[in-house]
Design a protein that fits this description.
Layout (H helix, E strand, L loop, with lengths): L5 E6 L4 H10 L5 E7 L9 E5 L5 H8 L7 E4 L8 H19 L8 E5 L28 H13 L5 E7 L1 E3 L9 H14 L4 E2 L13 E3 H13 L6 E5 L7 H12 L3 E2 L6 H4 L4 H11 L12 H8 L10 H5 L8 H14 L5
């Protein structure tokens, strides 16, 4: 008896989550991987990249219509917009266009995995119930993650495939040119502070320094995402996936400063998006002086997202016990995650 080979379609292949998911899948002998992104990518042994504009239904059908062997869709794509309402149309359309293109041709489709986050719980709007649980009630729209999940729930009715919704906290991982990379933003901010002979100040709202929050390691998230997509008990359910420990910036910030060899000074509210706007020439000079890889300023800048995270003057954490009850028991110490990521950025010559 032969088993159906597993073929993963990773949508959003160049983001923090998608890139690390591909890295994990490529280590598994029973998977082949197809990565979708606007930029495309360099093919590897068992990884093929396709450049596609998912907001163009004709381009999506043309590029995806031949992918008849896909068994698992991992949807991690995201497009940013200025307002919550403006986020809905493009982010729902991209998911719909993928499913419309793949479902009719992929005869052995088994699973569609949807990447979400704590926006599902209203974490981006202000203080909300913590720990957040997968059973928590929805809130007044607009919220594109709710629209995406409702679309999958309706589409799955009567079908052989099933879905899962994965809900990480802030994700820590490697990716360039990504608007939501907190670890890289911190590393660049700390490197510039050191270059200028400045102490490392927490730049967020005063109340954010002592609130509880958590993060999700991108590698841990990748393993949990594949687990949920292949574990029958997880079918048609949502799961919070986190490192498993809570922290406060007031204890993490001195640890980060110590890694970069700079002193800590009292917090001072700063908009990184504003104060970093003129730092491209400095970064270029730092690259030449320290022999950094030739990545442009825009590729290492995630300032709006960092400002957003550092503005949380309320607790931001979820209950991860459902995943453990269903069989996923991995965890990562967040301090160790930051150390590993900063070491990796240095190995890649992204930071001094």
């Amino acid at each position: 008896m032969t088993t159906q080979p597993k073929v993963a379609l990773v949508v959003g292949a160049q983001g923090v989550i998608g890139r690390n998911l591909i890295d994990h899948l490529s280590t598994l002998d029973d998977w082949r991987v197809i990565g979708l992104s606007r930029r495309g990518g360099e093919d590897q042994a068992r990884v093929r990249h396709i450049a596609v504009d998912l907001l163009d239904i004709d381009d999506a059908r043309a590029k995806l219509g031949a992918l008849t062997d896909v068994t698992h869709v991992f949807y991690t794509a995201y497009q940013d917009r200025p307002t919550w309402a403006e986020l809905v149309p493009p982010n729902l359309a991209m998911l719909v266009n993928v499913v419309d293109a793949i479902e009719p041709v992929a005869a052995h489709l088994q699973h569609i995995s949807l990447m979400q986050g704590y926006k599902v719980y209203g974490g981006h709007l202000g203080p909300f119930k913590t720990p957040a649980r997968e059973t928590d009630a929805a809130f007044m729209p607009p919220e594109f993650m709710h629209d995406q999940q409702r679309f999958l729930e309706a589409r799955q009715q009567g079908k052989a495939w099933n879905w899962s919704a994965i809900r990480p906290a802030v994700v820590g991982g490697f990716a360039l040119g990504n608007p939501m990379n907190l670890a890289l933003a911190i590393a660049v901010y700390a490197s510039i502070s050191k270059e200028l002979g400045l102490p490392l100040r927490f730049p967020g709202k005063p109340g954010a320094y002592d609130r509880l929050l958590e993060m999700t390691d991108a590698g841990l998230l990748a393993r949990a995402t594949v687990w949920a997509a292949t574990e029958p008990r997880c079918a048609n359910q949502a799961f919070n996936i986190t490192n498993g420990d809570l922290f406060r910036w007031s204890e993490m910030w001195p640890f980060i400063a110590d890694y970069f060899g700079v002193p800590v000074a009292p917090p001072l509210p700063l908009s990184l998006d504003t104060v970093m706007a003129d730092k491209a020439p400095l970064w270029k000079a730092m690259g030449e002086r320290h022999g950094l890889a030739p990545h442009g300023w825009s590729q290492v800048s995630s300032w709006r997202f960092a400002d957003f995270v550092f503005s949380w003057d309320y607790d931001m954490f979820g209950d991860g016990s459902k995943a453990r009850r269903h069989g996923f028991h991995e965890h990562v110490e967040t301090k160790a995650m930051f150390t590993r990521l900063f070491d990796d950025f240095r190995r890649r010559r992204i930071i001094p």
